[in-house]
Amino acid sequence: MIRYLKNISKILFASIVLLGCNACNKAGDEKNDSEAVVDLVTWDTCGYQQGEHMCDISLKDQRGDDFSLYDHIGKPIVLDFSTMWCGYCQVAAREVSAVAGKYAEHDLLYVTVLVEDQSGNPADIDDCDNWATLFGIIEQPVLAGSREIIQSNDNDGIPITGWPTFYFLTEDMVVDTILRGYSDEAVDFGIQGIINHQE
């Protein structure tokens, strides 16, 4: 009965969130074709700091499909912001499938956002596909990002200061932990925190 009530509350929360979001896109933003891949959706109450409700991220995945973070409300989520040239990002990428498999019973979603390719240019869909193939990432999304999603002087965007940077999100999209750098133990600790939040 408790599990049933939890599921009902998640569905109600997701419905309210999605209804509330429809009018919350930044007005007046016009993007040309090269910018169409990157789209940050903001709410009055969203942010990128611990304890805040994560702002939506809408990008293309390694298959060329649209991915929106808010489509996955109700799941614990790992957001891995990486670059293709970063050695520790590559180490983390080797573990994505194993980590996702280890926590499959908790419906964990592991999302990699590739911000730059090997040359420091914005990642594209081919880069994401190559990354996924190279590291055996089959089920989990690899998204084509760019530095446009990173905080700039106007304080708009995700405050990434090193690679990789991990955001651990609870099922209701609250930032539980932020990890800069990589270690197996630290990633596991972050995931345990968002899974324990479900129980």
Q: Which features would summarize this protein structure in a list?
A:
10 strands, Glutaredoxin, 199 residues, disordered N terminus, alpha/beta, five-stranded mixed beta sheet, three-stranded antiparallel beta sheet
Principal-axes shape call: globular
User: Average pLDDT, to the nearest integer?
Assistant: 83
* Total domain units: 1
Please compute the radius of gyration using only Cα atoms. Answer: 16 Å
Written as H for each helix and E for each strand, in order along the chain, the element string is HEEEEEEHHEHEEEH
Summary?
This protein is α/β, with parallel strands linked by helices and 199 residues long.
What does this structure look like?
- The chain is an alpha/beta fold and 199 residues long.
- The chain has one domain: 3-Layer(aba) Sandwich (Glutaredoxin), CATH 3.40.30.10.
- α4 links the parallel β7 and β8.
SSE inventory with pairings:
Blueprint: H1 2-21, E1 39-41, E2 46-47, E3 53-54, E4 56-60, E5 66-68, E6 77-83, H2 87-94, H3 96-102, E7 109-116, H4 125-134, E8 142-144, E9 165-169, E10 175-180, H5 184-198
Parallel strand pairs: 2-3, 6-7, 7-8
Antiparallel strand pairs: 1-4, 4-5, 6-9, 9-10
